[in-house]
Design goal:
210 residues, alpha+beta, TATA-Binding Protein, two-stranded antiparallel ribbon, 5 helices, 12 strands, 28% helix, nucleus, transcription, DNA binding
Length: 210
């Protein structure tokens, strides 16, 4: 008599018994959920039009543009979508700040360039470059800044009597991470999101050990 198919079926495994990389699946999932993700707060870029600009004329004929040369040497333009601020310099360079992603920064920069072109300035060349990406993160545990400063001395600047945070200057990628004892981090100097993610993957185990 033939045995039923059920005779050849192994009993189902409990998820908590599955092992991956030396950890139970349940533990691995929990640990991954506990790791925070850095959030981009500001992307700063420059765009060069390759042509000199008359800022007084631009401020007079453009909309939502402020220009007070006695206070600041650039015209200030703001757009709502993406919500950013553009600093327009007479050299033909435009600094875009306030974007929350690389793509929105590119879109905003293109808008600023088109607005200036519509005011009578034909760009000779348009060179776009991201200068700085700032991200924040809260690891949700206290950090021993003295311990990090001692074990990673050549990368750190820590003067608690002057500033409460520790500056960790990473070489690859070339970013600076400002670490506070509360567990909050500021990551600056990145050129793309990959720099932010790589820097955080490097610093997180260091924070855990200290």
């Amino acid at each position: 008599m033939l045995a039923s198919n059920n005779s050849f079926t192994d009993p189902p495994l409990e998820n908590s018994n599955l092992v991956l990389g030396g950890k139970r699946l349940e533990e691995l999932s929990s640990s991954l959920l506990d790791v925070p993700i850095p959030i981009i707060e500001n992307v700063v870029s420059t765009i060069s039009l390759g042509v000199p600009l008359d800022l007084e004329k631009i401020a007079l004929n453009g909309r939502n543009i402020e220009y007070n040369p006695s206070r600041f040497g650039a015209a200030i333009m703001r757009i709502r979508n993406p919500r950013t601020t553009g600093l327009i310099f007479s050299s033909g360079k435009i600094v875009c700040a306030g974007a929350k992603s690389e793509e929105s920064c590119r879109r905003a920069s293109r808008k600023y360039a088109r607005i200036v072109e519509k005011l009578g300035y034909q760009a000779k060349s348009v060179v776009f470059e991201i200068q700085n990406i700032v991200a924040t993160c809260n690891v949700r545990f206290s950090i021993n800044l003295g311990g990090i400063s001692f074990t990673h001395l050549k990368f750190c600047t820590f003067e608690p009597e002057i500033f409460p945070g520790l500056h960790y200057r990473m070489l690859q990628p070339k970013v600076t991470i400002v670490i506070f004892p509360s567990g909050k981090l500021n990551i600056t100097g990145a050129k793309n999101k990959e720099d932010i993610d790589t820097a955080f993957r490097h610093i997180y185990p260091i924070l855990r050990k200290c």
